[in-house]
User: Which sequence fits this backbone?
């Protein structure tokens, strides 16, 4: 699953996500529903996605920067649930732009949290958490790359541990919750990217 192709570049040509590009190279089927809500604006697309996901008999769904809220039917579908690779030390910077907000706020550290997804926005139990320093030379791009490497290593670790039941779900603390609001066009001039 990935977001629908979006206009990009000077010509605003419809461009597939990196996930779709890689999947196509490896002949992996791709679904791009605009919504997964069966009662939403695009119920036919959601139903088609549900039919495909049910047929796949999923063990686990891994979510990384997907950008859509997963409804309960998706969260309940895989045997081991849905795991999210989130680029912050939850509960700090829940939401869409955790890397940029950490830099903007002058945080000294960030990291990756592998979490068990629930119906809330980045509120699920933490399974793995690992911190890294934010260097003075980091910008959103360099920090993204560091966190992507860290996240890929941690999700593989989590996936290997799932069948052995060796991950300990830890509820997120109620203190320290912050929200990483999506960047808007007026913030484009900020040196966060």
Assistant:
């Amino acid at each position: 699953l990935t977001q629908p192709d979006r206009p990009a570049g000077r010509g605003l040509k419809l461009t597939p996500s990196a996930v779709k590009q890689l999947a196509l190279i490896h002949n992996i089927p791709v679904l791009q529903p605009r919504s997964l809500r069966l009662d939403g604006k695009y119920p036919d697309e959601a139903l088609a996605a549900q039919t495909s996901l049910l047929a796949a008999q999923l063990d686990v769904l891994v979510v990384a920067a997907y950008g859509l809220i997963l409804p309960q039917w998706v969260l309940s579908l895989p045997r081991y649930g849905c795991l999210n690779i989130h680029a912050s030390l939850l509960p700090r910077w829940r939401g869409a732009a955790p890397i940029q907000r950490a830099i903007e706020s002058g945080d000294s550290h960030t990291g990756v949290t592998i979490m068990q997804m629930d119906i809330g926005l980045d509120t699920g139990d933490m399974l793995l958490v690992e911190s890294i320093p934010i260097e003075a030379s980091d910008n959103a791009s360099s920090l993204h790359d560091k966190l992507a490497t860290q996240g890929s290593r941690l999700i593989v670790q989590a996936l290997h541990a799932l069948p052995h039941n060796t991950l300990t779900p830890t509820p997120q603390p109620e203190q320290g919750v912050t929200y990483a609001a999506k960047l808007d066009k007026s913030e484009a001039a900020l040196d966060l990217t």
